[in-house]
Amino acid sequence: MRAYIIRRVLTLIPILIGISLSIFLIMQLIPGDVVSGMLGIEANPELRANLEKKLGLDRPLHEQYLSWIGKAIKGDFGKSFRTDKEIFPEILNRFKITFQLTIMAAVISWLIAIPLGIISALKRNTIVDAIVRFIALLGVSVPNFAFATLSILFLSKVFKYYPPVGYVGLFADPAKNLKIMILPAIILGAIMSGSIMRMTRSSLLEVMRQDFIKTIRAKGASEKLVLFVHALKNALIPIITLVGMQIGSLLGGTVVTEQIFSIPGLGQMVLTGINQRDFPVVQGSILFIAFVYVVINIIVDILYTYIDPRITFKTGR
Amino acid sequence: MDNILEVKDLNIDIVDNGSIKSLVENVSFNVKRKGSLGIVGESGCGKSITALSIMQLLSYPLKASRGEIIYRDGDKQIELREANKGVMRKIRGKEISMIFQEPMTALDPLFTIEEQIGEVLEIHTDLRKSEIRKLVLEMLDKVGIPQPERIMKNYPHQLSGGMLQRVVISMALILNPKLIIADEPTTALDVTIQAQILELINDLRSSYDTSIIMITHDLGVIAETCEDVIVFYAGQIVEQGSVIDIFHNTAHPYTRGLISAVRSLGDKDTELFTIAGTVPLAGEFGKGCRFADRCSQALPICSEREPELVEISASHKSKCWLYNGGDTSD
Amino acid sequence: MDWFKSLIRAVLKIIRELLKDKVGRIGLIGVLIVVILALGAPLIAMHDVTEMFSKSKLKPPSPEFLFGTDDFGRDVFSRIVFGARISLKVGIISVGISASSGFILGILAGYYEGKTDGIIMGIMDVLFAFPSILLALFIVSVLGPNLTNTMIAIGIVSTPVFTRTVRASVISVKSMEYITSAKSIGLSSISIIMRHVAPNILAPFTVQATLALSSAILTEASLSFLGLGIQPPNPSWGSMLSESRKYMELAPWLAIAPSVFIIATILSFNLLGDSLRDVLDPKFKL
């Protein structure tokens, strides 16, 4: 068991190298060069040389990469071109906000999706099933920005409700904070629930067809026991995989949602960085988000081993 | 000797693309107290679903549509085909248990052996965890599992087919049911293990005084374990009687074919005997005997009128114009 | 020529099966409508997409401006219709890119295995390690936001899915008995693989391609919404929706029209993909 966990955590290293390398290489594709972008094409050559040296751009590529990643591991993501402030502390601050949004959205999506998925499976091929499947389809087909915009439109026109602007920290003012975060969390969560609903339904149906379900019934078990103890636990395995992937979509979704609701999270940082051509910010924030996603997936994998005893006994899953 | 189970005119249908087809037709048989009934037939003949219907374990699109299944225990008598779920739940695992064919998929992969056997006790009794544990250990020992304390903590994927089947047997017998239904319990196992498991079932049966319904396509198993036999073909009983009647006074060409096939396996000099043709599918039966087009002794009447299942001696019935004793002339 | 005829026959059969299923029918019709809008845009649109009717800014729907006008006085209906063209174009080309690169990479990884496989799948794993919209955003922002780069970005992001399918199929085909027997008669491995892999993957590929299309359209809309995809004044449903936010009080139709079309298009492709999956591999139907 522990060997498996250690193995999984060790895979972090090659993946991190891969991610950081790709980010670094993609950044090299930027047309024109950074310095011209900052100083203008006709800048004084001496000024250019100085800036280049300051940014470390005069060194060979692989040195630049190693220097960047070496510092990043220690928590030094460099400074923003715009504000000249340290990037990493800013990332951490904003991550707290994005993390809160992501968790709220995830929990909301599970609360909606899993019960509905179960009902849909149990009442298969009835009207209820059709309705749930339709809702799930909408979740998969409606982009979060469309849902967000339409919701705001609807709420303002019909209920005269305008989402509060002006972010406030969770610990500073919990009530106000939740009022601000609740709508974007519901919107993100509702969209996410679509695919989880479908997966819950199909996974549960698949499990219920298995032989061992018949054995459990033959023992005299009530349907509640069959469903909630045995069937659900078995069905959970593919659902958890999906949830892992969902977190990725959620993290991506926060970029749009934070923009629409003016929430100062990590997603907004990426966007602002891109719009302002602030490359260290872009590099750093994307690296961090990708890192978080990978870590969460590893946690999900480890979670598996607590549910499915078959996993640890296979070498090289 | 009284009966523990009486099945009368059982019919099982399947809903297929909107139409209802009959899979098992007017099947009647009894299982004696402490007796053993073998149900033999090819795959798809309806024997497994008959067994499932006794436990009310058929699910859509299958349905036991007509007939009575009566379970007798002393004075009490319960009809099982239409019994409500609460009644069935009290019976399953406690009065009537089932052993399935595929031990490798019969158990929940996410729970230990101890948890799954113990579950039967949790469902039906109020025993404490420690008592349950003790009983589980005893049972595992009785079914011949070595090192039961260790095995108990294992998960299904860690055990072999033979061991798993022993676990399934212990789950079925731990509450000392009056009737076990064993659906091809040895088919999925290696030949060497098969004999062990059959012996185990027989031993346990006699020490617990349990009746058994043994479903199999293997006549050898029938010969070794059963007192009474029913032969199924295409959803109908074509012959039924004691094991002596069936083997020594065979009264149906199909049964004879099955016996010849087994005999030819053992005898190196004769050609392998097979029954030509295949089993007709539900809904595609003609108007005569369902075996007629494969029968080497078919008479003209066989394709015209379906024979009745008639008694040809006290314990022996046959559904065939050749043995009918009735008017075979057209 | 024969295989072409049987291909056509197979396609027609699939379409017939799709039409039998309620879900498939809606999906197919929806997709067809979008295709017609896209292809027939110049004929269907009532005005030029960049023409600004300065006297008719922010007007509600009317017979002349079916979906109203925006803040520049442009006809929303015509922009929506041409937006269909852009969405479909981005979708098809980016899926084309990802499907073909996925196919090639998958064959290479599966056939050669070893180091080649390790490198290729390693790259795919890295691509997969990013949340997809983030990766697309990143690539587009680096290359410069325009139509072509949007297509490239989405194409790159969708490649891993196709690579995995093809690779899995190649590996399973390689291990099959008839390959060794065919080899013993002297057929070249590559041609064996191609002949057996291609029909094997056709079904899942088609389903994946349809779903990848819907995902591509969604991603393009998201990118354009953020201002990093199709740039104005080109009409993209995403950017139209983004611009509409400023005028929600005054002109709600500006938000509704692109939303409805985005949702309906993505929905249609999803329905089509789901239905295709059921038709091509019935055992998945639950």
Labels describing this entry:
heterotrimer; A: 317 residues; mainly alpha; 13 helices; 0% strand; B: 330 residues; alpha/beta; eight-stranded mixed sheet; four-stranded antiparallel sheet; 12 strands; globular
Please, could you describe this protein's structure?
The complex is a heterotrimer of chains A (317), B (330) and C (286). Chain A is mainly α and 317 residues long. Chain A is built from 13 helices and no strands. In chain A, helix 1 (2-10) packs antiparallel against helix 13, helix 7 (127-141) packs across helix 9 (174-208) and helix 12 (266-275) runs antiparallel to helix 13. Chain B is α/β, with parallel strands linked by helices. Chain B is built from eleven helices and twelve strands. Chain B has helices at 47-54, 85-91, 113-124, 129-142, 148-152, 161-173, 191-208, 219-225, 243-248, 253-266, 300-304, and strands spanning 3-16, 19-32, 36-40, 62-73, 76-79, 96-99, 179-183, 211-216, 228-233, 236-242, 310-311, 317-318. An eight-stranded mixed sheet of chain B has the order 6-7-8-3-9-10-12-11, with helices on both faces. The longest helix of chain B is centred in the middle third of the chain and has 18 residues, at 191-208. Chain B is globular. By secondary structure, chain C is mostly helical. In chain C, 75% of the residues lie in helices and 0% in strands. The model of chain C has no long low-confidence stretch (mean pLDDT 83). The chains are: A mainly alpha (317), B alpha/beta (330), C mainly alpha (286). At the A-C interface, helix 2, helix 7, helix 8, helix 9 and helix 11 of A face helix 5, helix 6, helix 9, helix 10 and helix 11 of C.
